[in-house]
Design brief:
heterodimer; A: six-stranded mixed sheet; four-stranded antiparallel sheet; 8 helices; globular; B: alpha/beta; ten-stranded mixed sheet
């Protein structure tokens, strides 16, 4: 589903991704771990099409299509979703309104009829229940005055409503208390199926206790230095990232 | 595991400001000129021109005398220079002060009799007059150039005793009302542009709502500037008698033009005891091209007088057009417990300059006013809010709340706020809040990542920013205003 080959990307003069290769197949859950500054968020943003990052080499294909040639909104409409590490506040724009517009943009692109306000609310309320979310958040401004936990849940709500084929969740677990973490994990697990791939970018093993990954990759210096199954995450927790760095340079 | 990439991707460069520029550069959608021969006066201004205007309109003597007093006073005045706007000197003698569609001699009795070319013009503007009038139940007094050509729903209004007609008709048919109220809110000596208007105004709208009557429909006028090089001097007078209520809608678009067109309108509102006037404007005059060439100069004096106790005047405006806007719809809160409101969205794009705001003059005790101003600047535009809140010594317990927000799109535009507050009564409470924000790249990326195009994202954010003001507009007008804003800012951010 997602094929990243020898991806090099920089922001300004700083090269952040230095030749990253990763293959993700439908139905798989991948965890990307690594120390601060290793390029985890950059990877997520480059796949989503953030224009501050310049791709200098390599390729990213998604379902056979060259992703790098598409605008961010086009990527989103064919099923690429990024759960943001820091969801931005958009004052005055109704949360439900944005989400409905997003859903209908995608449906239009896929030649499906748009949903009306009534159908949309029904769908959104259903998903919110699953996430233990306060329904009132639908009528607030997008992330406006949301707590850290509410923002992250809102990201998962958007994912649940938009039903992407490929979801990249950038540190969705950071800053969450245990209840919020469980709710988020429940939301993510509910979307696991044979057609969908999920990439979890995380610092900690904690989330992986609730969302069990098929593969764990360790990112260091802008490339994947080690891949394994979930036991790799446990080893990292035990030995720290220095162990990976040493192993990589050895 | 090494491999050779099958292709090297083109560098995805950061979006730069050139893109912003190109997106901003949208041509004026309503730019066209209707080919109707105009019966105009030659350019120039002296007492003879004033007399000629009055004569052509077959005005009673008191009108001519009033016009001449204004003209003579105007000769002693200087064009004001305090506003935050810059434009080449206007030569008032190069302007033609009267123009009327040819069909003036034989005024149409119904839409069937209206020049089809004219109806076509409305169609192009997306204002199907008959449709709108019939479906929405709105009475339309369409001002094409300077003379009204279609007035509908007269009967229904007449049943309620409401007078809604062109200013010229009012002068002919209700001279006593015109004489009693004309110039009592905006005197002919008021300011340079209002005085000029008083001397040469061509036409406009007149509304009179009798005591205790709630006007059965929204009253609406579409203004349109058409003939080349013709100053447009509208004059509107609305009188709401004791306990009456009226909502008036004004909307405008203009064809594309090279010459700068001067527009100096005057609007006077009088609300007597317990009366309420709601005045809504959507203004979309030609703003000029990317370099600011050819736009409308809009120097307007709009003022409402809350003359009676418990009266209320509410101004709502959405201003997207004109090269220069100089406009301060104001309220004189004379009556006890009177209420003044000003809700404004002012958009300035490309080279547009806007200096707009309001004045709330508190005289009556317990008078209250609310000001909500939303300024949006894009391109290289300059947008200034200028507001005055004055509490007179006798205005016990006066209250004002002002909220003044600016939104910047792009890096070459400017927002300025000039609030003036004069309080001469210690019991007054005056509050002023102001914010300035920018649409951030992060917000746009967030929306785009959710599949929403950049333009839709900008519209969404701008509309969210303006929500408080749109809420004050009558429903169908709110939709129109929202669309207009979307068009005005098409691609203003990259």
């Amino acid at each position: 589903m997602l094929e990243i080959k020898n991806l090099k990307a920089r922001i300004g003069d700083t090269e952040i991704l230095t030749g990253l290769t990763l293959t993700v197949k439908p139905g798989e859950v991948h965890a990307i771990m690594g120390p601060n500054g290793s390029g985890k968020s950059t990877l997520a943003l480059v796949v989503a099409g953030h224009e501050d990052y310049v791709v200098t080499e390599g390729s990213v294909t998604y379902m056979g299509e060259d992703l790098l040639g598409l605008d961010p909104e086009e990527r989103a409409r064919i099923g690429v979703f990024l759960g943001f590490q820091y969801p931005v506040e958009i004052a005055g724009v109704n949360n439900a309104y944005l989400l409905k517009a997003a859903l209908n943009a995608k449906r239009r692109a896929q030649g499906e009829p748009e949903v009306d306000a009534f159908e949309f609310l029904k769908l959104a309320r259903e998903k919110m229940k699953l996430l233990d979310m306060d329904q009132a958040l639908l009528n607030r401004g997008v992330n406006e005055g949301f707590s850290g936990g509410e923002k992250k849940r809102n990201e998962i709500l958007q994912m649940a409503v938009l039903e992407p084929r490929l979801a990249i969740l950038d540190e969705t677990d950071s800053g969450l208390d245990i209840d919020a973490l469980k709710a988020v994990a429940k939301g993510v697990n509910s979307l696991r199926d044979a057609e969908r791939a999920i990439v979890l970018v995380t610092h900690y093993q904690r989330l992986l206790d609730y969302v069990e990954p098929d593969y764990v990759h360790v990112l260091s210096g802008g490339r994947i230095v080690r891949s394994g199954d979930k036991s790799l995450a446990h080893m990292l927790e035990e030995k720290g990232y220095d162990w990976v760095r040493e192993a990589a340079s050895a | 595991m090494a491999f050779i990439p099958d292709k090297v991707a083109e560098p995805v460069s950061a979006r730069n400001d050139d893109d912003i520029e190109s997106l901003v550069n949208r041509r004026y959608k309503h730019g066209f000129i209707t080919d109707i021969a105009s019966d105009s006066l030659p350019p120039g201004l002296d007492e003879d021109v004033v007399r000629a205007i009055s004569l052509r309109k077959k005005e009673p003597l008191f009108m001519l005398e009033w016009r001449l007093k204004a003209y003579r006073h105007w000769l002693t005045m200087q064009e004001p220079e305090w506003a935050h706007v810059h434009y080449p000197k206007i030569n008032y003698r190069d302007i033609s002060y009267f123009s009327a569609p040819k069909s003036d001699e034989d005024r149409p009795k119904s839409l069937d009799e209206v020049d089809p070319k004219l109806l076509e013009t409305y169609d192009k503007l997306g204002i199907p007059l008959h449709e709108r009038a019939r479906l929405a139940g709105v009475a339309v007094d369409a001002v094409f150039d300077s003379v009204s050509v279609a007035t509908t729903f007269k009967e229904k209004l007449a049943d309620a005793g409401v007078i809604f007609c062109s200013f010229s008709d009012a002068v002919q048919n209700h001279p006593e009302l015109v004489r009693k109220y004309l110039g009592t809110v905006v005197p002919y000596r008021d300011n340079f542009f209002a005085t000029l208007n008083s001397a040469v105004f061509s036409d406009g709208s007149f509304v009179y709502v009798p005591k205790g009557v709630r006007c059965p429909m929204e009253l609406s006028t579409y203004f349109r500037i058409n003939a080349a090089n013709t100053g447009q001097f509208e004059r509107t007078l609305i009188i709401a008698e004791e306990g009456s209520h009226v909502s008036y809608l004004e909307g405008c678009t203009a064809p594309m033009r090279d010459e700068n067109q001067l527009h100096a309108a005057v609007v006077e509102l009088v609300a007597l005891k317990d009366a309420e006037i709601k005045y809504s404007t959507v203004q979309n005059w030609y703003p000029g091209d990317e370099n600011g060439r050819g736009g409308i100069y809009n120097f307007v004096t709009k003022r409402g007088d809350c003359r009676g106790d418990n009266s209320k005047i509410s101004w709502t405006q959405v201003e997207t057009g004109s090269a220069i806007t100089w406009k301060y719809p104001s309220c004189i809160l004379r009556g006890a417990n009177s209420v003044g409101e000003f809700y404004s969205v002012a958009v300035a794009n490309n080279m547009q300059q806007a200096d707009t705001g309001t004045k709330m003059i508190h005289i009556g005790r317990n008078s209250r006013s609310t000001i909500v101003s939303k300024g949006i600047s894009a391109g290289r535009a300059q947008n200034a809010y200028r507001g005055l809140v004055r509490v007179m010594p006798q205005a016990e317990n006066a209250r004002n709340h002002t909220q003044c927000d600016s939104l910047l799109l792009g890096k070459d535009c400017g927002a300025h706020t000039f609030p003036y507050v004069e309080v001469r009564n210690p019991t007054a409470k005056v509050e002023h809040e102001a914010t300035t924000s920018k649409i951030s790249a992060d917000q746009l990326f967030y929306c785009r990542q959710r599949g929403i195009s950049e333009e839709d994202a900008v519209n969404m954010i701008v509309n969210g920013f303006c929500k408080e003001v749109f809420r004050e507009l009558p429903m169908e007008f709110a939709v129109e205003a929202q669309n207009l804003l979307n068009v005005s800012l098409e691609g203003a951010v990259g």
